[in-house]
Amino acid sequence: MSTKELKAKTEAKEHKKTKRASYEYTPLKDCVVGTDQTWNFYAVVLDATFPHKSFRSDRFVCQMRIADPNSKFDSDGIVQHCTLMFFARRFEDLPVSQRVGDIIRVHRAYVQEYKGIKQFTSNIFFNSSWALFSPNQVAKTKAALADGNNFRPFVYFGKSFSFERSEHKIITACREWTAKSFQKHKVLNERYITKLTDVPVAGGKKEDDRYYDVDLQVKVVQVFKLDDYSSEIRVVDASNQVWFCQVLNLKYKYLKEGQYVRIRSATLEHHEKYNEGRSFGFKQYSNILSLPAQSLLVKDMAVDEKKVINDLEKALLTQEQTIMHPVIISRPQKREGDLTNLDKILSYTEAPEGARFLTRFTVVSVYPSAENLIQIQNTKTSALRENKGALKKDEKHVLSVVFLAEDYSTASSNQFAKIHLTEGAAQSVFFKGVKIDDLLKKKATRDRVHFALKQIERFNVWIEGTVAVNKRGQLELVETELKEY
């Protein structure tokens, strides 16, 4: 063989190695059961377990329910679904889907039938692969659209992924199907959804002393960060009952207040003694999946959220026992930006005047006492003095309070932040409806404010608001008001 022929043969081999594989994607209904053939397909995720160790082998597993734009609906508007099983040697090789409507692409999956439902099996430890795409259009600008950002997976198996322009059409079809179907139909079966009022019975003990799992469909009304690792969430459903549970921040990092979600496999195991406090927990395979915001399922959840939460917090604040669940007694009218913990705020030693931070804190101590809340302020220098003697030029009466505050970030270091509240208007914003003149003259008004301050000092009572750096370099509470119960 000549040198030229050898070179040509080598180049042909290299080209064959580097040549991108071309995949043909088949609708789920056309994937034939009972053959040794493997299938490539796109589908919409309707439900998913969290990846976990198998109970029967040393593999890690994940199960999904999927459909695609060719799937049929029954007379109740429930889509005909398939199941998808993933098997892998490592946890990190499996997909984590926590959003109903995620689009999944699978290569080289086998198909069979299990209990009358078409079931796909993806063996990641062999040669199968997957990629997850957002159900929403990510990019908005023309430049980003031209760059193809809308069609890139947000996570995939392997070091790289292949993608052809023809797949744009499939992803777009899946997105359009998801948006239209969830607005027009329920899509998901609610037969096995348990109302929160029925959880104590439906999630009770079996004869073998194990507990039944329950699936929930709820609205997340509060996410309260307990520390860097965990948060407590407060949920409510159409039965207008509130329940609590603790979640891991890393596992559920996309969970937000205001979301409507499906909770898969909640349990009362290890939580039976907290039934009066309405708390549930999770199994290793449990998952929380957000529902599409513009969906019929969400519209059908008639939740009287404001009244339910108001009644709950009022009950917690009026009880004599220790408050076990966080109560945010004060919030800003307009919530802008993300929460910043006190440790981070205090680390800004040279924060410029006017720098603002949205934060959440609990009050360890309040001073001065309710009898001495009114002080005299110089309008030019902002200096404060005791309310003694007549007002001088450029002086006015102001309500002045100092909160000795902490949060989870400062509690372990025994570090506190001094947060000042100074109000010079005729009527207080923080103590809603309280007039400055009435604080000077009326004992009933002082008693009302004194009671509010005592509530603020209670364990697990929190203030959320915007703090700003004032002229003297102090932290000033500028935007928040106490709730009225």
UniProtKB/TrEMBL annotation:
GO cellular component entries: nuclear telomere cap complex
Domain annotation Telomeric single stranded DNA binding POT1/Cdc13: ranges: 25-179
GO biological process: regulation of telomere maintenance via telomerase; telomere capping
InterPro entries: NA-bd_OB-fold, POT1, TEBP-like_OB2, Telomer_end-bd_POT1/Cdc13
Keyword line: Chromosome, DNA-binding, Telomere
UniProt-listed SUPFAM superfamilies: Nucleic acid-binding proteins (SSF50249)
Subcellular location: Chromosome, Telomere
One of the record's GO molecular function terms: G-rich strand telomeric DNA binding
SMART domains found in the cross-reference section: Telo_bind
Family matches, as Pfam families: POT1, TEBP_OB2-like
Name of the protein: Telomeric single stranded DNA binding POT1/Cdc13 domain-containing protein
